[in-house]
Amino acid sequence: MVFSSLYFLFLYLPVVLLLYYITPLKWRNLLLLVANLIFYAWGEPVYILIMFVSIAIDYTHGMLVEANKRKGNDRGARLAVASSVVCNLALLFFFKYWDFIAGSLEAIGLTFMPKLGLSLPIGISFYTFQTMSYTIDVYRGDAKVQRNIINFGTFVTLFPQLIAGPIIKYKDLGDQIDYRKHSPEMFASGVQVFVVGLAKKVLLANNLGMLWDVYKALPTGELTVAGAWLGVLAFSLQLYFDFSGYSDMAVGLGRMLGFEFMRNFNYPYISKSITEFWRRWHISLGTWFREYMYIPLGGNRVSKPRLFFNLLIVWAATGIWHGASWNFLLWGLYFAALLILEKAFLGKLLQKLPAVLCHIYTLFFVLVSWAIFAVEDFGQLGAYLKAMFGMAGGGLTNDNVWYYFSSYLPMLIIGGVAATPLAVKLWGKLQEKAVKLVLPVLLLAGLIFSTAYLVDATYNPFLYFRF
Q1: Burial of 76 from C-beta contacts in 10 A (0-12 / 13-18 / 19+)
Q2: For 322-377, where are the alpha helices, taking DSSP H only?
Q3: What confidence tens digit (pLDDT) does each residue in 82-126 have?
Q4: Contact assessment for residue 12 and residue 39, using Cβ atoms and an 8 Å cutoff
Q5: Other CB atoms within 10 A of residue 436 CB
Q6: What are the angstrom distances between the C-alpha of 134 and each of 53, 66, 70, 131?
Q7: What is the pTM of this model?
């Protein structure tokens, strides 16, 4: 089940909220655990077993870490953390990467790893990273051990951010799992954020995605330079509004249930460097890798060669986290190279340039990265990149490009403006009385138009099935 579906909006969510608020406080986590499992089982009932395994692994390992620390046995605590990490990564490897590696080996004539044909459990990369953070946080003393397995299970399976993030670290949510406040103001704020996220996903991302699909499916001989850039521009906006829309919906749902989740996007397309872009894009993932991989490797408190090596390792892992395909690894290494260059000398140079040139530099390399990210087949990817850089079989442009450009121009303009803080700044200048009058109208319109789209449309992709 996904948030942008009629079943979720008008069946699952109202029933869960009703039951949640009529349930006594001490039973609400149990209710949420059941609701979470039903949410996940809607499409993949078999993979609930993985949820139970993840809960059991990290609950018991957290207890082992705490017990060894209490006895002063740091070696035992470290072994428990290592065991938890190995178990979690083994689950992730088996379901996400086994067939990928088996297929890659088969391509070079090695057949000792049979392909199993396993379907990928939705959201496994998100909840695996969340559960791994628990034992590490307990070992570091950043979080208290959770002795109530119902509460821990609620953390692992919490439906608002289960399948598409943001990635919530246990130390940030543990206290809220045990006790959280509920208020009409917080609930209303959650509804507002959810509807905004729904509109971003359904009205912007889905429509822009149709333009990207046109150019991704186009035969390489018909692809033009202008068409290649138009297609990847559409994808960049689709991905942003899809992912940030889901993150907004998750934050909104969390507030309706008394939780406060971290912000996952902060207008990344206004960045003036690649370094800044990754401080604004998928913030929860960047924070996770920084705290649990980059800093333990030494972070930036090391020599320049070691710093560059650390960036290479972290970004290779970031790339392959996104999907079991070589293009994701290439995408991660691409950003590693850019970040290494900025650390080495480019960052200082950018500080001396006019802001507009820094924006152009960042957007150029980010758009190229989205082509690498979106096209898995290396032959097709090579042809698409050649087209972007002037070697297009269809020439510079053609009538189809102008047709699609003019047809989607209003949506591209709306998307471009909505990807910046401009609308929020203008909204902030409205007087409080005007806000009270206009806000309910806009939210109701967003919900009605989004619902109408979902009733009528057959195009509603879920971009995170590979994650």
Answers
A1: middle
A2: 326-341, 347-352, 355-374
A3: 999 999 999 999 999 999 999 888 888 888 888 888 888 888 888
A4: yes
A5: 10
A6: 15, 12, 17, 5
A7: 0.93
